[in-house]
Design goal:
Number of strands: 8
Structural class: alpha+beta
Oligomer: single chain
Order of helices and strands: EHEEEHEEEHHE
Largest sheet: 6 strands, antiparallel
Amino acid sequence: MILIALGANLPSSAGAPAATLRSALSHLEERGVKILSVSSFYETPAWPNPAQPPFINAVASINTALQPVELLTLLHGVETDFGRLRSAPNAPRTLDLDLLDYDGAVMDDGVTLPHPRMTVRGFVLAPLAEIAPSWRHPVTGLGAAELLAGLPDRDGVKKLA
């Protein structure tokens, strides 16, 4: 199972953050990435500055012939297409696409897998638990719901209708 996280808290050329996420998924499909499933959208306060616009987040399960480094390059290219500027860490952004897991691979050569901070991000774990309840972290063996239950900030993640 290949999993990507999507997030945005600034408008892009596609519109508001939710529209950006939907459009980014279409762009990925146009580039040969098969979208298998997409979670609901979740709203999360911006961090570290909650005065910034809240993020809209989701997780998608995909299929692709691209290898991890190639896929990450594609994800970064789509971010750029939607006006992503890489300035300061945790800055507001038009689009953020993260490669979370690539068929359970554990690697740190060109791309770090599984994503090194996914286990402490409720905005990743909540949608991940929704679309892949049987997924297990390749290193810890814990499921997304188990990891989410251990987070103090999980209540800040709100599922949107």
